[in-house]
Amino acid sequence: MAPSAVPREIIQSPSDYPGVESKAVATSHQNGSPQIDSSERIDKSLGEFRCLIADLTEQFKGGHPGGAMGMAAIGVSLWKYVMKYSPENPNFFNRDRFVLSNGHTCLFQYSFLHLTGYKNMTLDQLKSYHSSRIDSICPGHPEIEHDGIEVTTGPLGQGVANAVGLAMATKHLGATYNKPGFPLVSNMTYCMIGDACLQEGVALESIQLAGHWKLNNLVIMYDNNQVTCDGSVDLCNTEDVNAKMRACGWDVIDIEDGCFDVEGIIAALVKAKANKERPTFINVRTVIGIGSKVQGDAKAHGAAFGVEGVADIKRKFGMDPEQHFSISEDTYEFFRDGKSKGRQIETEWNDLVQKYATEYPNEHSEFQKRVRGEMTEDWSKLIPAKSEFPTTPTPSRKSAGLVCNPIAAEMQSMMVGTADLSPSVNMIWKGKVDFQNPDLRTTCGINGDYSGRYIHWGIREHAMASISNGLAAFNKGTILPVTSTFFMFYIYAAPGVRMGALQHLQCIHIATHDSIGTGEDGPTHQPIALPALYRAMPNLLYIRPCDSEEVAGAFISALQAKNTPSIISLSRQNLEQYPAYSSRDGVQKGAYVFIEEENADVTLIGVGAEMIFAVRTRDVLREKFGIRARVVSFPCQRIFDAQPIEYKRDVLRYRSNAPRVAIEAYAVNGWERYADAGYSMSTFGHSLPGAAAYKYFGFDENKIAPKVAELVEEVKKDGIEALRGEFRDLNEGPR
Amino acid sequence: MAPSAVPREIIQSPSDYPGVESKAVATSHQNGSPQIDSSERIDKSLGEFRCLIADLTEQFKGGHPGGAMGMAAIGVSLWKYVMKYSPENPNFFNRDRFVLSNGHTCLFQYSFLHLTGYKNMTLDQLKSYHSSRIDSICPGHPEIEHDGIEVTTGPLGQGVANAVGLAMATKHLGATYNKPGFPLVSNMTYCMIGDACLQEGVALESIQLAGHWKLNNLVIMYDNNQVTCDGSVDLCNTEDVNAKMRACGWDVIDIEDGCFDVEGIIAALVKAKANKERPTFINVRTVIGIGSKVQGDAKAHGAAFGVEGVADIKRKFGMDPEQHFSISEDTYEFFRDGKSKGRQIETEWNDLVQKYATEYPNEHSEFQKRVRGEMTEDWSKLIPAKSEFPTTPTPSRKSAGLVCNPIAAEMQSMMVGTADLSPSVNMIWKGKVDFQNPDLRTTCGINGDYSGRYIHWGIREHAMASISNGLAAFNKGTILPVTSTFFMFYIYAAPGVRMGALQHLQCIHIATHDSIGTGEDGPTHQPIALPALYRAMPNLLYIRPCDSEEVAGAFISALQAKNTPSIISLSRQNLEQYPAYSSRDGVQKGAYVFIEEENADVTLIGVGAEMIFAVRTRDVLREKFGIRARVVSFPCQRIFDAQPIEYKRDVLRYRSNAPRVAIEAYAVNGWERYADAGYSMSTFGHSLPGAAAYKYFGFDENKIAPKVAELVEEVKKDGIEALRGEFRDLNEGPR
């Protein structure tokens, strides 16, 4: 896209900055439009802010100064004039949410948190950016753990999705608890993006959804500096972004001089907040590294300016080149009302909640639970007893419905969605209402409204996971997102699933069709390597239950993991049920003895949909080879790893002479920790009916048993030591 | 989006179908517009085609009939009237490419391949769809291995990206080899999509790029049936798709009655082919499962119709319900000219190439190499000798530039791109020219044209990988794509990388900043679990070299792997160089002895950027603990696994009493196969300068050595057997 305006030249005296005229000094809110301070005062803050950024990147010769400097006027507009927040209570429930999707410009946010008085964000802390200080709260990208940061960003596009989730949460909670005169949940979500976020697919998916849902409480501010690492954005993007956003159902406002036109930005933000119909995209033309000799150039993006460069910037902004990290008392004073305004906003809200408590005591009681992040129902009572499950072969995706549907029906905090696989994933409960813009009832005959808790994500797995992170991040425990699609397509969602794990956000991912047993859809749909990613991922539970009882156990684990997302991996096809062996409590230990055998010659590890091969191989070994095998069920490696060593030794018989064989139709990688041999997959799958696919790849007890018998023979002959460090792949593959 | 036209009712007599008027029977091409057959003849073929699809899904009670039936008129327009192809030579170089991005409708493509006479696609083969037949060439989604299939599709959105790559390939080869009067490479690419492909981020990224590059040889045909698994598309998408496509730089043509209006579809396709400016999006309004009782409903999407349902469809189309898989001789005859037209097209092209050989002998010689998929240069001579590498610490991303830049400069088949990280990944060679639409020279001052071989992908990792699959799939070996970004962001690209591995497409992925040593960018940018995915992925080489010499080895492996994509995993930070130990030949074996020690007490496995900790730990063990350690370098597990057992035993000393410790700052998962203990990461990373990050997580020889010494002591005391099956995690994590 061609620049919409030539950036104005930086000139010597800050009072000469064009685009901002003198205004009254008062900043009280009138009719939603804040009164704006004098241009001198604003310009001074902009100049000092930009020099501070230059100093902070210069000290350790690194970081991302250019974007933060270019966006200064946007920051002043937000933190000084528009956003509702409370520096003394960063987690104030009804605060406006701010997401920095272009997270590498984090100094932008940190510096405004400092100026507006967030307690921990001292100047000393700002200086810890890019330092070796372990106690730094100024990491290279914003992290959710720190006050004033709503979500961890950095991987581009994620923040857009998170912001959509945050805005959904407001809409949903508002529709659920607000009453006439009681706008309990009414905050805005502001998302700052750079050029990159308009290129990443996850953002493009999320933008579609926000337009579809008419999230009018969402504002994207586009730092349109037309520069990325490689240079001009024209190198790789020349679309008409405004037209595209309109086509996606957004309103668009242009700001020509985004480096200085605070008044214009404020007006746009006020208009966006007043928009009753659509989300707003504010296209703000800025200049990267404004005031530096490399302004407008990719060189301003990701490197410090050098000592002379910084001095030059300071001279441009009328500041003393010898002064470093210098914020005047005037500028601190300028931002000081952030705290008092925050206290006032909080008081007003608390009063509102008090009155609500009187008028709507039941709703208030539930609302308070939500605010505290407590679940509204005791889910443990809602999970079926083992005796309630079918005993005939059942797909575990069906079992998951039996377990999850009653919880979803009752538990108001659960929002369940699917990437267009409602008929396959069984997550619809009786009486579910869709999360939708209620206008669709008239325009398209779609039944739903914002209070609905069933989400049609469309065929957008990545957005599904990343927006769900935003839902979960709104307020810890207030919303528990449940996503669903075929397991294979969690490879599309992987960047979002990972960000959820990194941020300690509870979310349950229902991953069906999790094996070659999926069948005819073929290798494109049959996961082989993906489990290795999720089993290795820190702070994630990948749980693969073998029958309905274990599915119950998987949900118990996932529901209890308040700071950890889970993937529950489920079959398309019918699975044998093992009421005599399977145990939900066993799942809580990651692995457990499924079928004991005192003087076993071998331990077979069965997992999920392939448990049947372990159990049947045991039978064949006994009947045809006179070999005694015990069976261990192993639904979750991460949970097992956390068990006491004694338990682990007991289950796996670490020092016995009986070898252990893991049987699973995935790549074996990682099982080597628990087994001496594996019967697994070393290639991609094949398009065949499920049972035929298993057979084709050698998953057949009559093929497995002889291989295990050979191994047992070898151990008897050469001793168990022969297996140390020489893991055996027993499956010879398709024949 | 609201339907643009109410679908016309299916009526009893096929000759009454509206929308197609009788035309002359001749089908010869005039002025680019084919003459069209009589409506009776066309309607008969449409009806028979639709009944065939219904029969094929009914026989095994499964599959996806609805889309294929709805798209029949599009297929007739393409295969009968518009597309250039040769059934007797499916790999004819200048054929038009057809990509079925909505791959679940594969019966659509299979059936047209059958009707137009692709040798292997017999009626018997069509009937193998969803059967247990191992020899089936009709898998549940199209697979590249079979004649007439350009790329494997199924995971939605991928096909759009692949089609963009195929169209790029044509543009690039045309710009490189075509001469006035010699349009050697001039084919079109047609991509069929469903509603889902307009939701998946990878498609949205690719659509942006195609518009940016003005790929006027690319046509997307949108099977706009407004139905997905969950029901109406309105559930999750209400954007103005035409306006969006125009904003992305595409021309748009609407077809109101896509079920029957063959004439209109042909006219649109002809217009698209004549478009000199932009890619074309043909928005074809269709009715899913047309002719069935569930037409227009999600029920027609992914299930057979039942015996009565099929009979009913046949009655609707005037066919005998008792006849199954019935194609009349008339209809076979209708498509029979496909072969003769194909022979003619081939002959004309071969003649053209012959004349070209005379006029441009040098270009012809190179062109022939490209057609045969041979590399244009002997790359092995272009790789620097060990002695040419720096001996001082060097980032391996820099070493990769030293190795790859000279090859890229010379080898015309190599197309190198980056997801906006040109300054970081070092893949620019002197004199590189960008792949760009040359118009940008005047409009934006961007230097490049279609003959350029350097690709600015923008911040679109997923599209980068998936479009690269299309580049590689154009003709085996003709183009070797090289992609690049930070390793962490290959998690965005993972679905594309996987599809490349599944399709045996050679592609080299340059993954820099591959460790916690990346530093300040923090945990969002520091990979921990991702290597586990790529090490487990079939047919993929994940290679992590430790210094420049090993980088050379990694490229040798990757360049030799003609049927396998590779990821070369590289450091941001300086790495020690080991000219005395490191070996490019060693890399070809996956792992090799780096520092031998005859009576070693322990084997340390060093990998990539963390080799330094293995080497230094060896020193500390000797100096402070009197322990003799040998060091193995282990750049690629998959290559090592393919070595003879004797070699593996030799390198890892399988049966010695010396334990093996893998040292790597990733999740340890998978190393258990090769080691008895690991010094690794069990959490996400931390934002600290690289060296400080390593230290924070215990990567420090003075912390590692005592842990290894303890292990050695234990083994001396309890014997090596004590370690069997009880893998030790030696790193206690951050302290």
From TrEMBL, chains A, B:
<dbReference type="Pfam" id="PF22613">
    <property type="entry name" value="Transketolase_C_1"/>
</dbReference>
<dbReference type="InterPro" id="IPR020826">
    <property type="entry name" value="Transketolase_BS"/>
</dbReference>
<dbReference type="InterPro" id="IPR005474">
    <property type="entry name" value="Transketolase_N"/>
</dbReference>
<keyword id="KW-0808">Transferase</keyword>
<dbReference type="InterPro" id="IPR049557">
    <property type="entry name" value="Transketolase_CS"/>
</dbReference>
<dbReference type="GO" id="GO:0005634">
    <property type="term" value="C:nucleus"/>
</dbReference>
<keyword id="KW-0460">Magnesium</keyword>
<dbReference type="GO" id="GO:0046872">
    <property type="term" value="F:metal ion binding"/>
</dbReference>
<dbReference type="InterPro" id="IPR009014">
    <property type="entry name" value="Transketo_C/PFOR_II"/>
</dbReference>
<dbReference type="Pfam" id="PF00456">
    <property type="entry name" value="Transketolase_N"/>
</dbReference>
<dbReference type="InterPro" id="IPR055152">
    <property type="entry name" value="Transketolase-like_C_2"/>
</dbReference>
<dbReference type="GO" id="GO:0006098">
    <property type="term" value="P:pentose-phosphate shunt"/>
</dbReference>
<dbReference type="GO" id="GO:0004802">
    <property type="term" value="F:transketolase activity"/>
</dbReference>
<dbReference type="InterPro" id="IPR033247">
    <property type="entry name" value="Transketolase_fam"/>
</dbReference>
<dbReference type="InterPro" id="IPR005475">
    <property type="entry name" value="Transketolase-like_Pyr-bd"/>
</dbReference>
<feature type="domain" description="Transketolase-like pyrimidine-binding">
    <location>
        <begin position="394"/>
        <end position="577"/>
    </location>
</feature>
<dbReference type="Pfam" id="PF02779">
    <property type="entry name" value="Transket_pyr"/>
</dbReference>
<keyword id="KW-0786">Thiamine pyrophosphate</keyword>
<keyword id="KW-0479">Metal-binding</keyword>
<dbReference type="GO" id="GO:0005829">
    <property type="term" value="C:cytosol"/>
</dbReference>
<comment type="similarity">
    <text>Belongs to the transketolase family.</text>
</comment>
<protein>
    <recommendedName>
        <fullName>transketolase</fullName>
        <ecNumber>2.2.1.1</ecNumber>
    </recommendedName>
</protein>
<feature type="region of interest" description="Disordered">
    <location>
        <begin position="1"/>
        <end position="39"/>
    </location>
</feature>
<feature type="compositionally biased region" description="Polar residues">
    <location>
        <begin position="25"/>
        <end position="37"/>
    </location>
</feature>
<dbReference type="InterPro" id="IPR029061">
    <property type="entry name" value="THDP-binding"/>
</dbReference>
